[in-house]
Input
Amino acid sequence: MPDAFDYIIIGAGSAGSVLANRLSDSPSTVCLLEAGPRDLNPFIHIPAGFIKTLVNPRVNWLYETEPAAGTAGRKIATPRGKTLGGSSSINGHIYNRGQRLDFDTWAQMGNRGWSYADVLPYFMRSERRIGDGDDTYRGRDGELAITDIDNTDPICDAFIDGVVNMGIPRSEDYNGGVQEGVGYFQRTIYKGRRMSAARAFLYPARGRKNLNIRTEVQVTRILFEGQRAVGVEYRRGNALHEIRANKEVLLSAGAIASPQILQVSGIGNPTHLAEIGAPVIQAREGVGENLSDHYGVRLAARVRNARTLNERTRGLALVGEVAKYLIARKGVLAQSPGVALALCKSRPSLEHPDLQVIFAPASYKEDAAYQLDDFPGMTIGSWPMRPESRGFVRARSSETGDKPEIQPNYLEAEADQRLIVDSTRLARQMIRTPELAHWFESETTPGDRLQSDDELLGYAREHGTTIFHLMGTCKMGPVHDAGAVVSDELKVHGLEGLRVVDASVIPTSHSANTNASTIMIAEKAADMILGKPPMPAANFDDIGSDNALV
Output
């Protein structure tokens, strides 16, 4: 007889870690399956170590996109976490919820209970905000520590001051009442160590007798009896095992692996299922479609009159930084890659910000795999926050061990092409403000030789890259929406006992980094799964008019 649990969770990433914690905090029995190993790699926990995890096959799936005309025929590296904590164990530590508009749009698309007022309490429940913030919007008692940058420098201060003097407001808390402006990042770093979803949610729960965590197991398919999910088949080593779900199977493998697992299990477009030799359990043409991702361009400059991270992370300087980290958990190794954030508008007439800009006192070699320049540098990365281009994820075979076909179709939409040029021009203005003049020496990439719209668009096609915010491939929406995969209760349409809970359910482009919202989705899903009433929606009538949410 196979093992049996009330709930089986596939994937121990941002969503799966939350689900495992919340569901096991009840009499229910829970089994959590993770394809990768335990999060023992030290570079996971050292904030600056993320650069090592991005190329490590032990903790990273190392996916690649398919070549496309919009990206000059290139394959683009697409890291995804493969360890406890998933991508929250290898990401850039940025905590960014998104705009009120994002969630209100979800609700307007027919997803009941997903407006900003509905989801704000779930953001707050998981959050332990350490720092300033209006408690109307910020949580103080959750498991996920959110901290401020604690090692600012004059270059970063000058960047922020310069952007403010360009007319972009200073942001006091971009996760609070107003999501527009420029300021320092809020981070999932606590006492010099990464605060992954595993550390925040799994670690406190792993001693519970009703929670079973299995690592290094590759899920091969979801098992069905008729139209009901009843278990999971997985491979450990060379052996296949089955595990039964008394209540539900919860798929939290992420925007790439979740649709792939559905497809090989017989849920998807029948034509595609026939191509890979999968049975048709449920025809849903939207499985794997609607892929959205942020695609950005880096603008870099050589710095004078200062040492940047480029010099502080090599030779004897690095030895000193290592010692500083080991002794006090401070210094370069305790930093996130980005330092400052601007959420801004490409045109003043817009009602909502449509561009995200990040600043770092560091620069990377062009087209190199995350290698810093040999000279002092600074970088501005920028991208459209709500791209219109859509792609897909499709299993290549009936084996989940075969990497799927990933085609985001970056820059396919004309609006995205225009905005990527606008964002590059805005970055050029930001790096040339009078406030930064003391440190700015010259633009290194794209370089002053590229000036026209066509030249800047060509550069974006040839050198732009993913911002690692894949979403949308198991779209949430009403059953009459042919592209929808799950309901507003995250149940797969037409099936029983199966939900998808991760960033793949996000129905439209999300104007933020995805980790915070993925955790929120899992918080809300846990209440649904356990049959609890939803948390009371926020009442914005009680909030002063000076907190205009955008």
